[in-house]
Design goal:
The chain is mainly alpha-helical and about 110 residues long. It has five helices and no strands. It has two domains: about 45 residues, no CATH class; about 40 residues.
Amino acid sequence: MLGLTQEHLAATLDISYQQVQKYETGANRVSAGRLYEISRALQTDVAFFFDGTIPVAESGPMPHGGRNRSTIEIARNFGEITDPAIRTALAGLIKSLVLSGDETEKVDGDAVD
């Protein structure tokens, strides 16, 4: 609508025109910050890119209670342990902790999130 080429937009954003192509085709995701930069370069509001999309209902907190980040970190670190005996011992420890936590919940009657 502005008559800009991918090359012009890329130069404005200080990226390659190939990167603009990847954004345009969906081969690469556009971060929120980059989307903001693109909207500024195109002299429009970020909301322009969402015109015609279906609104999503507000959501509450995720049911996992924020535990996914620590779970991912544990999995990454666990994968770095090269000694099979240590991996086995650690896996057993984690299982014991989970099972003892389940017993504690049944005794106390309180759910632990």
